[in-house]
Amino acid sequence: MKRGLDCLFIHTGRFSRGRWDMTLMPAGLFALADVLQGRNIRSQMLNFSLAKMKNPRFPLNDFIRTSGASIICMPLHWHQQSGDVISLARSIKSRFPSKKIILGGITASCFAGEILRDFHEVDFIIRGEAEKPLPMLVERLLSGANTCDDIPNLVRRRGTKIVANSGKYVASKDAFENLCFTNLDLVFDSDGYISESRRLENVDFSYVPGRGCLHDCSLCGGGARSHKIISDRKQLVCKSPRAVAQDFERLRSRGISSVAIAFDPFENSRYYTAVFRELKRKKILLRVRFESFGLPAKKFLEKFKETFAPGSGICISPDTGSDDVRKRNKGRFYDNESLLGTLELMSRMNIAVRVCFTSGLPFETREDFFKTAALIEYLQGKLKIKNIGVAPVPLEPCSPAFLNPRKFHVKLRRKRFADFMRQKGGYDLGYSTDEFSEREIVKNIKYLQRLVHGGNAKKLH
Ligand code: B12
Questions:
Q1: What is the predicted pLDDT for the residue at 459?
Q2: Which of 41, 77, 81 to mutate to test the pocket of ligand 1 (most atoms within 8 A of CB)?
Q3: Beta-strand pair 410-412/431-433
Q4: Is the Cβ atom of 29 under 6 angstroms away from ligand 1?
Q5: What mean pLDDT comes out for the span 39-56?
Q6: Amino acid 458: pLDDT
Q7: What are the structural domains, with CATH classification, of the chain?
Q8: What gap in Å lies between CA 395 and CA 79, rounded to an integer?
Q9: Least crowded by CB within 10 Å, which of 10, 172, 327, 442?
Q10: What confidence score (pLDDT) does residue 454 get?
Q11: Ligand 1: centre distance to CA 396 (Å)
Q12: pTM for this prediction
């Protein structure tokens, strides 16, 4: 008889305004399932949000029962999922009291103590990086051993107390090099997952070649300092160009023809030009959407153009039209003049571009806001750029503005995990600035969105 699962990963996604979203799973989940599988711990990833989207009556309890898994691992990575993860954990625990529920991911790591104190349906939390701690914990649970003091990054209950083990695990460069973030065979309905990624992101798969950051953008919860607090990571790690090429080859052999890369914390283009060179040498031709955290240099653009398939493009996020606001909020600063120069160059090189903006950044004044509107109009009118996005940026836990609101002149509406659980939808920002109330920020964002979509944007102030 076929052996059942030992460990089932369940990605909850989010149910908001009557529909399921946040259906992408954290990139790191693939590596965790793959590491367990490599140690003969049978694992699978179930994308609950996607299963419910396809079949609103998806029988989760039957799925869990027939899987045989005694351990349920749930990513609580994005704070927007907080309420959904806890309510699903509660429902699983009430139906299967003997199953152990383990949480992990950025948001679970930020609020580990509060979650374990208030939500007894959660048995364990692994803070930060989990490739070593998770197999250790799962092996102990499967063997019935009840000692786990030596498991790094583990937070748990002991009697009425919450204890955090003292050991720390952070993946070294060598360990990271060998992690596999592309094992789609461990995803239940992997074809459905690829189709969902195509629908949402217009690419088959999101690939992340590294971990950590060198910068501290004001509203980002994944900057250098946040990583230090969340996982004790002090350095950036990246896969070698050879390992990235192997991953891409694996993806291609799985039928994947387009990939998004949204990881670009580097000071210069050396890393990616080496990666692109290797992909070209290996003749791996994919369509790529690259999210540039700074401004792509000429050399980067040349290599990008000669490496990837037609339809590839780059997303740039100046966020604001004001140089001063950009300087005070963004780790990798560039001014409007350099931005316009790069956009003109990309247009000459025929590289597709998407330019993204927001409003409500710390220190933004009304005048700055109108600079953003003016820049958008200039890009649309003079540079004929059609692909412009405007999106709200909710305040992320552990971001510099969250950790030090006074320095950034913001007022937080969400501080504790319970506050994050109560949030509703993408426009629930959770903060206001000295200049704008939360409602005004949302109004400003909607104004810019109308500007982009050609609506009547005049009725704002
Ligand atoms: C690449 C990236 C993306 C990519 C790829 C996402 C993906 N599939 O993972 C894209 C562009 C798609 C993306 C989307 C979003 N992202 Co993003 N993203 C990043 C970025 C730059 C790198 C993240 C990363 O992959 N790290 C490396 C990988 C290998 O590790 P990992 O996935 O983090 O997993 C490790 C741990 O978290 C943990 N873990 C994760 N899950 C679990 C589960 C268990 C049980 C355990 C034990 C452990 C565990 O284990 C792993 C390793 O040990 C970070 C910023 C940064 N510099 O870190 C932001 C970041 C993670 N994203 C963020 C956000 C908010 C989003 C969006 C919600 C944005 C939006 N409004 O749409 C969406 C959500 C997408 C969805 N689900 O639908 C925030 C999260 C803040 C927070 N606390 O919630 C960050 C920190 C940036 C920010 N703005 O502050 N993102």
A1: 38
A2: 77
A3: antiparallel
A4: yes
A5: 97
A6: 40
A7: 7-164 (3.40.50.2300), 178-452 (3.80.30.20)
A8: 10
A9: 172
A10: 76
A11: 11
A12: 0.96
